[in-house]
Amino acid sequence: MSVSEKVSLSDALSNVDVLDELTLPDEQPCIEAAPCSILYQANFDTNFEDRNGFVTGIAKYIEEATVHANLNELLEEGNAHAVMLYTWRCCSRAIPQPRSNEQPDRVHIYERTVQVLAPEVDKLLQFMYFQVPGSRGITTGWPRAPNWKPPPPPPPPRTTKQRRLLTPDIYYYAIGKKKSMNLPRASNGIVTPLVGSSVRKAIERFCGEVRRLCHAEKRRDFVSEAYLLTLGKFVNMFAVLDELKNMKSSVKNDYSTYRRAAQFLKVMSDSQSLQESQNLSMFLATQNKIRDTVKDALEKINGYEDLLADVVNICVHMFETKMYLTPSEKHMLVKVMGFGLFLMDSEVCNINRLDQKKKIRLDRIDRIFKNLEVVPLFGDMQIAPFNYIKRSKHYDPSNPNPPSPQADLMVHLPQIREEHQNYISELARYSNEVTTTFKEAGTDAENRLVSELCLRGLQLLSAWCSVLTELCSWKLLHPTDHATNARCPPDAEEYERVPVRRGGVREGERGEVATNCGVATMFSRICIDQQMTDEGDGTAINYVTR
User: Fold this and answer.
1) pLDDT, position 510
2) Rounded Cα distance, 44 and 217, in Å
3) Is this prediction's pTM over 0.85?
C-alpha cells in the first residue's frame, strides 16, 4: 500500500477488530502456583494458655494465670453440674412399682430399675464428690489404719471403651450376676470409688485459695480485680448449686427409688456400700448443705472476712459503674453480694462492725437490693438475694423493706424510651455517613468512637432485656391468689397463679410478651409505643416489640 493511498474510517475499524482474533502464544510455562487466601481468626478464650510466654516478665503473672486456668476448669465443671440439676426430670414416676411382695416379676422390675437409674446415680455421686470437702468417695469419715499411707496419684482418664463398659459393670454387679467390680485399690487396701476419686473438691480448692490469700504476708501484696472476680464466681456457683439442690425434689425421689431397688437386690450389704449410700442420702436430703459447708469451712480461716469484703466491694463497684455486658453478669454480681454477706456474718465477725470500719458499705448494698429484689437463679428459676441477709446472724428484722420498683415497668419506661430515641438517632446519623460518603480507613480516634457506639448499643440491649427478665422473675416469685384477683380460680395450681402469661392471650386479659431478636435487628426495630395492662396485680405494662 502506497503512502498516498487513503484508508476509510470503516476499513480502519474493521482492521482493528481483526486484531482480537490474532493469537499470541506464550512459550513460557506457568510455574507460579495459584494464590491461596489466608484467614486470620482471633480467639481470646484460651484460658491463659499463653502464660508460659511471659518467662522473662513478671513471675507473679505466670503464677496467677496458672491459678486462674485451674479455677476456670472448676467453674466449668460446676456449671455442668448445675445444668444436670436444672434439666433433671423425675424418672421414678415412669418406672412401674411392684404392687405386692408376691408379684412374680418384681425381681425383674427392680433389676430394670437399677439398670435405668444407675447412670443417673453416678451423676449424683460425681456431684457430691465435687462439693463435699474432705470426702474421698466411700472412705469419708472412716478411721485410718496405723500403717496408713497416702494413696497413689489418680489413674489416667478412662478410654472410650472403658467408659462404655462402666454402666454395664455397675448393672451386672447390682443384680448379682457379677461378684466383684475389679475396683482399683489404694496402697492401704481400701477400695477407691468408681467416680470422684480424681474429682477436685470445689470447696476445698476455694477455701485453699482464701487461706493462701489471707496469710499475713500475702495480705500485704496486691490482689488483682480479676482474681477477686474469679472468687466471686465461685461464691455464685456455690449459691446456684445449693439452691438447685434444694429445689429439685425429683432428685431425691429418683435416688430413693434406686436405693429401694438396690436394697431389695441386696447389692449394698457390705459396710462400704452402705456408708456411701448413706452419705449420698444425707447430702441430698439436707437442705442448704453446700451453703453451710462453705460457711463452716471459711470460719476456720483467720481474716477471711477481709478478703470476702474485697470481693463484695468489687461486685458493688462493677454493678454501680455498669461494668458488665450481659444480664447474667449483672445478676451474678447481685447474688455474690447477698451470699458473700451471709458468709461474712458469723459469731466472730459482724458485718455491721465492718460497715462502721468502712470495709464495706451496707447503705450502697441495701440500695441495690431495694431496686433489685428478685434475680434469675438458673434458667427460669428465681431467687431473692436479700433472703441470705435475713438468714444471717446479726440481721435486724425491725428495718422495714419498702416495695421494690422491679414489679412496675412504668418506672423504667421513660428512661428506656429516651435512651432508645437518642441511640437510634445517633446510629442513623453514623450509618448515613458511612453509606453516602467514601473515605479511607478512619483514624484511631474515629475507630474508638465506633467501638464505643457499638458497646453502648450492646449495653442498652442488655439493660432492656434485664428489665424484662427481672420483671418476669419478680412475678414468678410472687404468684397471685383468689383473694387479690377474682379471675384466679381458688383451686389453681402454683404455675397458673403467676400473673405473667406466656404463649397465649385470654379474652379480657393481655399477656406479657417478650421477643428475643438479633442484635442487628434490635438496633432499628425496638419501639415502645403500646400500653398493656396486667390484670393480675394491676400493674400497668407499657411495652411492645414490633
Assistant:
1) 32
2) 33
3) no
